[in-house]
Amino acid sequence: MISGNWTVVRELLWSGMSKQEQRIDGKASRDIRGKMVLLGTGTSVGVPCLGCECDVCTGGHPRNQRTRTSAILGLPEGNLLIDTSPDLRTQLLREKIAIAHAVIYTHEHADHLHGLDDVRLFPFILGHAIPLYAAQGVEDRIRRVFDYAFSGREHTHPGAVPQLELRHLEEKPFRVLGADVIPVPLVHGPNCRVLGFRFGNVAYCTDTNRIEQESMNLLRGLDVLILDSLRMRPHPTHLSVPEALDIVEELQPKRTYLIHLSHELDYTTFHRELPDNVHLAYDGLEIHLT
Ligand SMILES: [Zn+2]
Ligand SMILES: [Zn+2]
Ligand SMILES: [Zn+2]
User: Fold this and answer.
1) What is the per-residue DSSP string for 69-115?
2) From ligand 2's centre to the CA of 263, what distance in Å?
3) How far, in Å, is the centroid of ligand 3 from the Cα of 77?
4) 99-132: per-residue pLDDT in tens?
5) What is the pTM of this model?
6) Of 32, 37, 72, 268, which residue is least crowded by CB atoms under 10 Å?
7) For the chain, which domains are there?
8) What's the CA-to-centroid distance between 206 and ligand 3, angstroms?
9) Ion ligand 1, residue ranges at CB < 5 A
10) Ligand with the closest atom to the CA of 237
11) Strand, helix or coil at 65?
12) Per-residue pLDDT tens for 132-181?
């Protein structure tokens, strides 16, 4: 269950804050407490795909504009970003969200990690390094790809490199920003393990082609399931729509939103073909945390 008293937390969080923090709290940053906002719902190359002339890519329908998959949650003690997509800056500008208080990673693939440098501004507002919750494989990749953030070399000016604090993420429940999180291990092809996350009765499971029984048991009784579903045809590392619907059939969540969508799924036609309680997600979709 999501717990915590926002009024008390706000006083704690914002007491003694600078002008910039007040501005972030009051005006520049939208209040998303109690909600998950889907920042991106597209597959790794995004939709439209560069150079593609299909109807989805050229049609311009707003719900077929899919940035790389990620989300942000308004938790009792701040905003928790799930992954740092290469589109992070434009996603946060679009949603008028100016601050994340922590990041939690699903896995280390480029479409989920390489926007990390965009968090550089947040430590100025927070007054400390931004916590990154990452499993060992993700941490290893972060230390390699973003080696400049860990070099220990004197920097030319404040903000030259992101101030990052890695926190080890294990496959067991923990608390972050005043909320309980249950990591849900997922299979993502033969070479990659992914963590889904359950917050109360809402679960976020991206980048998977198979969910083992032990993890399925962590996903029962959901109000909302957010689930990978790339396209109709099978794929070696992602669920197809029929495979995703089999999981929905077994878990029976009240509602399901499909994410990590390719250009083969046209919002304007395909959403009518899904069962009543299953929907194609779209960038900017908001889900109430329960
Ligand atoms: Zn991905
Ligand atoms: Zn296309
Ligand atoms: Zn992936």
Assistant:
1) SEEEEEETTEEEEE---TTHHHHHHHHT----SEEE-S---HHHHTT
2) 5
3) 29
4) 999 999 999 999 999 999 999 999 988 999 999 9
5) 0.90
6) 268
7) 6-288 (3.60.15.10)
8) 8
9) 44, 111, 207
10) 3
11) coil
12) 999 999 999 999 999 999 998 888 888 889 999 999 999 999 999 999 99
